[in-house]
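Subject: Sanity check before I submit

Could someone independently write out the C-alpha cells for this chain? I want to compare against mine line by line before I put it in a report. The sequence has 204 residues.
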Amino acid sequence: MYNLKVNIFVITGPSGSGKSHLIHEIITLGIYPLEVYTDREKRPSESKISDRVHLSLEEFSYSLEEFLYWFEFQGNRYGYKKKDIKKQKKLGNSVCFNIPPVFLSEILSRLPEAIVIYLNVREKHFPMLYTRMLKRDLYRNIDKHKEKVIKSKIERRLEHARNELGLLETLKKLISNNPSSRVFDIYDDKILYKEVLPHIKKLI
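---
Independent answer below. Compare away.
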C-alpha cells in the first residue's frame, strides 16, 4: 500500500487525450477519484465508471450552491462539490479529477495548491483522438442515423480540441507555478504508462 501525501491532482487535456483512463489508473495508487456531477446522459462505455454522478437537469440546477466549481461544456454541465473535497481532505486522502483545459485557469484560482497533469495532443496526432472517441462512443447494434449523429459530435469535439491547442502556451506559466505539475505529449497509448504514471508515483 502506498503512503500517500494529501495532494489534489487536476487532470486536463483535450477530449480523447486519456483523462478518464488516467483517472482509473491512478485510483489503483490509492488516490480518490472526486465525483463529477453532470446533467449529461450516461454513455454506454460509462457503465462501470464509479466517479460519475448523473443528475437530471432539475437536480443539477437545484445543487448549484453546493459546487466548488461547475462549468458548461458542449451543452452539458459538470461540477465538483465542496463537501466531497473537504471530506477527503479530512480523511487524509489525495484526490484527482479532470476538467477541459479552458477551465484550468479558473479552477487553479480556487485550488492554487493543485498539481496539474496536462495531457497534450498535437494536431498531427488527432487521428488517434478520433479512433479513441469512436471506440468510446459507438456501440453494437447502433442504427445508422445515431451513428451519423455520434460521428458528427466527435468531429465537433475535434474542432474544439484544435481551438484548445493555442491555450497551452498561455497556461504554461500558470502550470509552472507548481513544480510538481507537468505537461506530457500524448502520441500513443504507452505514454501514460511510460511517463505519466511514473511521475505521479514519485509525488505520492
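---
OP: Matches mine. For the report I'm noting this point. The beta strands are 8-12, 32-33, 36-38, 52-54, 67-73, 76-81, 95-99, 115-120, 182-185.
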